[in-house]
Amino acid sequence: MTTMTTDVLGAPVRRVEDPRFITGHGRYLDDIKLPAMTHMAILRSPYAHAKIRSIDTSAAKAAPGVVAVFTGADIAYNPLPMAWPAGGASGIQNNVNTPRALATDDVKWTGEGVAAVVAETAAQAQDALELIDVDWEPLPAVTDAEKAIADGAPQLHENAPNNRVFDWQVGDKEATDAAFANAAVTVHQRLVNHRLIPNPMEVRGDIGWYNPGTDEYTIWMSSQTPHIQRLLLAAFVMGVPEQKIRCISPDVGGAFGSKIFCYADMALVLHASKAIGGRPVKWVEERRESYGSTIHGRDHITYVDVAATKDGMVKGLRVKTLANLGGRLSTIGPGIPTTLYGRILSGPYKIPAVHCEVTGVYTNTTFVDAYRGAGRPEATYVVERAMDLVADELGIDPAEVRRRNFLPPDSFPYDNPSGLLTAVNGSKLYIDSGNYEPAMDKALAMAGYADIAAKKAEAKSRGKLLGVGLSTYIEVCGVAPSKWIGAVGEGWGAAMWESSNIKVHLTGKVVVTMGTQPQGQGHETTYAQIISHELGIPMEDIVVQHSDTQGTPFGYGSYGSRTSNVGTGAALKAAAKIREKARRYAAHMLEANVEDIEVEGAEYRVKGSPDKKKTIQEIAFALDLAFDTPEGMEPYLDETAYHDTPNCTFPFGTHVAFVEIDQETGNVELVRYVAVDDVGKKINPMIVDGQLHGGIAQGIGQALWEEAVYGDDGQLLSGSLLDYALPRAEWLPSFELDETVTPSPVNPLGVKGVGEAGCIASTAAVANAVIDALSPLGIRHLDMPFTAQKVWGAIQAASGGSGSAKGGEA
Amino acid sequence: MIPAAFDYTRATSVEEALGILASDEGAKLIAGGQSLLPLMKLRLAQPARLVDIGRLPELRGVSKLDDGRLSVGALTTYAELMDSPAVHLAVIRDVVPAIADVQVRNRGTIGGAVAHADPAADLPAALLALDAELVIQSSSGTRSVKADGFFQGPFATGLAHDEILAAVILPAPRGDAGSAYASIQQRASGYPIAGVAAVVFVGAGGLVEGAGIGVTGVSDHPYRAHEVEDALVGTTGTADAVAAAAALVVGDREVSADIHAGREYRAAMAVVHARRAIEAALARAR
After folding, report:
1. A637-672 burial, b if ≥16 CB within 10 A, otherwise e?
2. So where are chain A's domains?
3. Which top CATH class is B7-52?
4. Are B2 and A721 an interchain contact pair (Cβ–Cβ within 8 Å)?
5. B268 to chain A nearest CA, in Å?
6. A631 in B contact zone (CB under 8 Å)
7. Measured between alpha carbons, how far is A620 from A629 in angstroms, rounded to an integer?
8. Distance from B1 to chain A by nearest Cα, in Å?
């Protein structure tokens, strides 16, 4: 028997998940209906800042169908954990305040949960919510980070004077000051990277079930990190042994980072199920509710200073950022604007001196944590705007400024001289690889960049302002290795490795179980492609499982493109172990020495005797039956491997955006988008393209349309999709994508990761394009998003009109 | 997104629906449900009873009257309107695709849009510009009113509680007419920040002999801008004449403001889109 298989690694294989997703057979959290299941609704604060004087739940408890009503006082659990304090240098104080399952004494943002109703139906739970009477004492609120740290601002937490969570810094202050002292040219700009609201198609939800017979808890959750949630819920929140909790993530309909975290509702459904005697409790957030119950992203105010020579060589970068972290801290809130932002501020450029100070700030807003790219889009925005500001100041083409400052291709592995990537004990990350100029040249050629003046003139003849913007980004994928995460003093207090188990059953069918957790990325396809390639077994004989702490090896989950870099490493190692054991058993079956067994695809052959061979399926069959197993060999082809990557991977590329502005209305139209990305080798180029398309659209959304807007009283004015504008396909041109391929030396397959690249690059490219379009009017900078009203106001102001950027009194 | 409890009656005739409305203060009509149901799910609307008129055949469909005008039944959906002789009116071709999305246009009804009277709904602007008539039924009979004057405030119209909007009468297409709709949309909701529909009648020598200008999104209800019409009529529609007329589109009305558009910007957009709509209408008439 010979099983031939075509090599699927690197091929645009159709996703095995898609038939179930697109025919409505996906099984998402809300599709799960358990026997005797109850439904929970959560009463949320209408105030941004208020004390809770008392809560009267008596009418709600008496309402039809109500099983139980809870307030914070009923729940003995600890506050949620905060697992990634800002660190990096000794003595950095993190003033930690995290949410509880339900708020007890006070609320810090509109939408914080204060009471929960469990009822027979979701409608009854919702009806009973209206009967809960909370006696509020409203307090003054502050939503802007700059206002929150000012004298006299409303104070949120006693342990955080002036609403400061931490004051963190990284880089070489002395060298940076010296660079500015000696600089021929300096530029300065205040940049706002505004707040965004994650909007995966599937909102979050949980089902909690306490089994009174075994004293065990099971929770189904729409999560990127079921293993971590078991750890956090057990050890930090509930105080129950870890083995008493099982976490299951069913199909997850998108996340963008927002489902990494430990949320109050998780603890709440488990508490509720136990309190009502073990009936399952389901809670699914509504879209509007999610804007206050699930994290937001970004929200930085940054002051950037750049020191450069007259030739545009950047010699110093000084960045001061206020990071708005919301009313309490989310699971890794402080880690995002520090480690994942400040440490990569220099991007693809050789900047000898960099210094960054970040202050985390409490405000009366929804908590802020990782949103697609998490810190890296913010950093890219700063350095890519900085490059354009230098170009503008010196009258040098923005592409040329970038070219002069790029790290040359012989720089790698690159150890940033300002120590951005150095941990407290000297443990370093390196930028593993890069070759930036060819990617930029390719993108510029595709874009027809040389003819830009003619294109602008043509647009002007139609009454439009054309702008072109560049973003020459780098990305950091697969946050790891554990030793760096630990040593950097900013770690979870946990590792960042991944795991994989491979079982080749008696029938030759393969089950791969992974510790990573897909949210739509196609892991069931890509891992199968890898294992098929490694073991010579057809893809259709391989199934990839994940997402259940009972039955999958521990893993830290999927975010930051960890799967591509770290997860694949684990799968490759497990496959190598399978191959090695199969080889040893083939030697036994073929009565040959192990050293003489050659492996090609599924076949294990004796060197020099090509007819003497066994397939992996035959080996698996015999090893499973184990009628004839040599001394010292265990039955069954079943191997588990763990992988901790030696370094992060660093994809890069150049994106070029073209916008046209209608001067009469301020409307910005994205007319063309060119991107050349280098994500190393690709497991499945179709999936890579999909990630790029989605990411690019998401980043464009931030630049042009999306914005979380709070009123001064802390009400979220963009509180639904009627006021929060997501990008729509009809507003986007067909993206023109191409690639360069610089394999990562860090990953055995040479892959890097692509989950965030699109949105890291595109926001800055579009911003630079809009400002380029407005530059003939003398406009040097404008903050995102470039809504029609804001652009119209800027045009009016620049041309002496009466319009303000706010379009008049709102 | 769970509405408060309500009673539900599916009417089998207009008479039955009118009877319920007359006897039940808490009853509210539902047709396509594209505006009412979202409000109910947010519990911003909590009607005690819904009277579903969505399946009454006598309120559905577009027919030509003897005088050439079109009677559009209140239950006609936006999609059906686009598949009817009403598309001979250019402003209808412009305005319908600007409304919401395909799914909403397949379910949402013309009568529902008019009776709901969202201050930023697109369709009323076109009906005002076209000088459409509204046919209203009650237990005591049928009456017709002009669209002009029907919209009185946010979600407030000249429709009494015991009345049903039965049909919208559109004018017959004319050879000397041109019409258009121009708007700028609020990106999240798709509702116009300012939307202007223009109908012009151009006679010999390019003289503008008549005009209808409907405006939506700008103030607390859609309105007909007679000032613009008066300024336009009698001119030959030169660029200057159009600009001068369009500049009158807001007048002394109170302009709405929200996070997407302040008063100044919204008023400016009303002028820009009035000019664009008039210019497009003139081009079509010439």
Report:
1. bbbebbbbbbbbbbbbbbbbbbbbbbbbbbbbebbb
2. 18-25+497-643, 32-139+201-254+259-293, 297-481+647-798
3. alpha beta
4. no
5. 8
6. no
7. 12
8. 7
Give the start-to-end residue ranges of the domains of chain B: 7-52, 62-170, 177-285
Which CATH code is given to the segment(s) A18-25+497-643? 3.30.365.10
Those residues with Cβ within 8 angstroms of residue A120's Cβ, 6 or more apart along the chain or in another chain: A38, A39, A65, A67
pLDDT-flagged residues of chain B (< 70): none
The Cβ of residue A735 has, within 10 Å, a number of other Cβ atoms equal to: 18
Furthest-apart CA atoms within chain B: distance in Å: 62
| Mean pLDDT of successive 10-residue stretches along chain A, which has 810 residues | 68 97 96 98 98 98 98 97 82 92 98 98 97 98 98 98 96 97 97 98 98 98 96 96 97 97 98 98 97 98 98 98 98 94 96 97 98 97 98 98 98 90 83 97 98 97 97 90 73 76 97 94 97 97 96 90 92 98 97 96 95 97 95 96 94 98 98 98 97 98 98 96 96 98 94 95 98 97 98 95 53
Q: Residue B225, SS3?
A: coil
Q: What is the pLDDT of residue A343?
A: 93
Contact A533, A600 (CB under 8 A): no
Angle (CA) A177 A178 A181, round 5°: 90
DSSP-H helix ranges across B60-181: 78-81, 90-95, 102-107, 110-116, 123-129
CATH topology of domain A297-481+647-798: Aldehyde Oxidoreductase; domain 4 (3.30.365)
- The candidate with the shortest Cα–Cα distance to A465, out of A779, A784, A806, is A779
Mutate to test the interface with A, among B101, B259, B273 (most CBs of A within 10 A): B259
Distance of CA A377 to the CA centre of its chain: 10
Question: What is each CA distance from A15 to A9, A19, A340, B66, in whole angstroms?
Answer: 13, 8, 31, 59
Are the Cβ atoms of A723 and B187 closer than 8 angstroms? no
Task: Give the residue among A160, A27, A153 at the shortest CA–CA distance from A98.
Answer: A160
CB distance A438 to A676 below 8 Å: no
- Tell me which residue has tokens 């909701």: B189
The answer to whether the CB atoms of B2 and A126 lie below 8 A apart is yes
- Superfamily holding B177-285: CO dehydrogenase flavoprotein, C-terminal domain (3.30.390.50)
Query: What's the rounded Cα separation, in Å, for the pair A459 and A464?
Result: 5
Residue B3's closest chain A neighbor by CA?
Answer: A123
Alpha-carbon distances, residue B194 vs A724, B122, B248, B250 (angstroms): 19, 9, 14, 11
Q: Give the pairing type, strands A353-362 and A314-326.
A: parallel
Give which of B245, B4, B240 is closest to A126, Cα–Cα. Answer: B4
Judge: domain B62-170, CATH 3.40.50.460: no
User: Which candidate, B261, B167, B253, B246, places its Cα nearest to that of B213?
Assistant: B246
Same fold, A18-25+497-643 and A297-481+647-798: yes
CA angle A551/A556/A557 to nearest 5° reads: 80
Which one of A664, A723, A808 has the shortest CB-CB distance to B259? A723
Phi, psi of A569 (to 5 degrees): -60, -40
Please enumerate in sequence order all residues whose Cβ is within 8 A of that of B69, keeping only pairs 6 or more positions apart, or say none.
Answer: B169, B170, B171, B172
A and B: number of Cβ contacts within 8 A: 73
Other CB atoms within a 10 A radius of the CB of residue B7 amount to: 12
Residues in chain B whose Cβ is within 8 Å of chain A: 1-2, 4-5, 42, 184, 186-189, 193, 257-269, 272
Closest-CA distance, B186 to chain A, in angstroms, reads 8
Cβ partners under 8 Å of residue A429, min gap 6: A421, A484, A647, A648
Q: Name the residue with tokens 């469990």.
A: A118
- Reply yes or no on domain A32-139+201-254+259-293 having CATH 3.40.640.10: no
